[in-house]
């Protein structure tokens, strides 16, 4: 049962084990200082206590079966046969992805009884690295909208203020990570779905570039899978598990993912970072949000970087129109059959109907404009890297909003004309296909978290993670400011 928004549990006795970073947990398991059974039992008790307050983890597996799997992991260690760095880790898979034996509801009553019979590639790779799937993480219906609520599992609430949204679509993963109910988590990102929940959960996440984590097909679609965690080292390790070429993915990058297990230390003295901000007032932002983002410049300066505003004019209005075409084309195409059947159409959320109707209006010329518009935007952004090594932009335009609200209708005196216009800050960078890390930048006066997008060059996830690590060493927001339920 979900607790009422704003309800507070008594301060729990938080187990030291769940406060460990994922890399530390892995090290202790491999050294046999803790058993996989002990890890599973501790995490399950912690989930049982805190999950009702935020409703992050859904479709929980049978406890006895999970303990038995953990016992098998211990037996593998006894034989000297560890399976990988995630050996014995409890994980919960985002409810847009398939995990064999678990429901993939996508938050829709249409698919409430759908049970996966296979693993998606990144899920299979996590299992092969030793992870044990304990359940799924909650999502908005069909993953649409950066606020996690649906008619199957209800609303996921923010770990720092349970009257507020946890973001989305990886909102369940974000809330679970913030409350230490999982060591690491998978997510996916079309329009900020890895970045927004991480920003609103005081977490780190990586939206990898196209091809880094394989997906089938010859078209680089805007949606990608990526890692979420509490430290840059943790998400780098999870990336090393999820990444790597696959024969079924012709655009996958032919690079050894072991790269991401290397030394993150690097000297960034003299690195130049371009600050995008709100595109010179083009984006509406909640008061105080940009101030928090620009306050991060001091930490970048501390590690030797120079941050300066980008003066070059970018065609951001055209990028938004191009993004809308891609959004309708990809989301609408995949779900058009549900709209064609009157029995399922009446079960669709308005946001999905908006995308499907947009798809049905598309012409061949519109699709051509989507392709050329994306090329033109990439060329404009690539030009910035002639002057800068990295770029910075806000991860959201508002702080976490009232969880009872569907989406922000207005920011200041500016009305939002679509259900996702309030997240426009992430759209141009999705369109670019460049790798992006969300980094925490602190909290509003009312204690609500915010984050910033650190954007790297094409296929340059590793230097991006190295700079993110250096920033993390200078700030350490995730460890410094725990959610109230953990204090």
Automatic annotation (TrEMBL):
Q: Which Pfam families match?
A: Amidase (PF01425)
- Which molecular-function annotations from GO does this UniProt entry contain? catalytic activity
- Segments forming domain Amidase: 38-462
InterPro entries, per the entry: Amidase, Amidase_dom, AS_sf
Q: Which SUPFAM superfamilies match?
A: Amidase signature (AS) enzymes (SSF75304)
Name the PANTHER family on file: INDOLEACETAMIDE HYDROLASE (PTHR11895:SF76), TRANSAMIDASE (PTHR11895)
Protein name, entry field: Amidase
Q: Which organism is it from?
A: Saccharopolyspora shandongensis
């Amino acid at each position: 049962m979900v607790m009422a928004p704003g309800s507070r549990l008594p301060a729990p006795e938080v187990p030291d084990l769940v406060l460990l970073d994922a890399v530390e947990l892995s090290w202790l398991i491999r050294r046999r200082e803790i058993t996989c059974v002990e890890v599973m039992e501790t995490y399950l008790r912690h989930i049982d206590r805190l999950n009702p307050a935020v409703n992050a983890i859904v479709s929980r597996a049978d406890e006895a079966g999970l303990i038995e799997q953990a016992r098998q992991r211990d037996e593998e260690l006894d034989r000297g046969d560890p399976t990988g760095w995630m050996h014995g880790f409890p994980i919960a898979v985002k409810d847009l992805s398939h995990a064999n034996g678990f429901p993939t509801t996508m938050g829709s009553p249409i698919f409430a009884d759908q049970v996966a019979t296979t693993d998606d590639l990144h899920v299979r790779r996590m299992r092969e690295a030793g992870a044990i799937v304990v359940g799924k993480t909650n999502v908005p219906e069909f993953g649409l909208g950066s606020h996690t609520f649906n008619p199957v599992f209800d609303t996921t609430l923010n770990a720092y203020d349970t009257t507020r949204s946890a973001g989305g679509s990886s909102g369940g993963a974000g809330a679970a990570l913030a409350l230490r109910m999982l060591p690491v988590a998978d997510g996916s990102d079309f329009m900020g779905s890895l970045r927004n929940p991480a920003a609103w959960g005081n977490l780190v996440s990586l939206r990898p570039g196209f091809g880094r984590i394989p997906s089938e097909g010859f078209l680089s679609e805007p949606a990608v899978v990526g890692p979420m965690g509490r430290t840059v080292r943790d998400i780098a390790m999870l990336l090393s598990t999820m990444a790597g070429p696959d024969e079924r993915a012709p655009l996958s990058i032919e690079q050894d993912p072991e790269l991401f297990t290397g030394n993150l230390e690097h000297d960034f003295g003299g690195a130049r970072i371009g600050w995008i901000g709100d595109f010179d007032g083009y984006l509406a932002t909640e008061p105080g949000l940009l101030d928090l983002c620009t306050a991060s410049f001091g930490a970048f300066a501390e590690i030797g970087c120079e941050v300066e505003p980008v003066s070059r004019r970018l065609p951001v209005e055209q990028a938004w129109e191009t993004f809308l075409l891609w959004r309708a084309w990809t989301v609408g195409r995949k779900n058009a059959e549900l709209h064609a059947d009157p029995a399922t159409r009446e079960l669709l959320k308005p946001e999905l109907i908006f995308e499907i109707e947009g798809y049905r209006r598309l012409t061949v010329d519109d699709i051509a404009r989507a392709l050329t518009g994306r090329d033109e935007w990439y060329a404009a952004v690539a030009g910035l890297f002639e002057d800068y090594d990295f770029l910075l932009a806000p991860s959201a335009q508002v702080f976490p909003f009232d969880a009872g609200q569907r989406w922000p209708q207005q920011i200041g005196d500016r009305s939002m004309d679509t259900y996702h216009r309030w997240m426009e800050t992430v759209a141009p960078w999705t369109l670019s296909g460049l790798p992006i890390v969300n980094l925490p930048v602190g909290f509003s006066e009312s204690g609500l978290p915010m984050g910033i997008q650190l954007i790297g060059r094409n296929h340059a996830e590793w230097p991006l993670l190295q700079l993110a690590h250096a920033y993390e060493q200078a700030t350490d927001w995730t460890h410094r400011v725990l959610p109230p339920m953990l204090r």
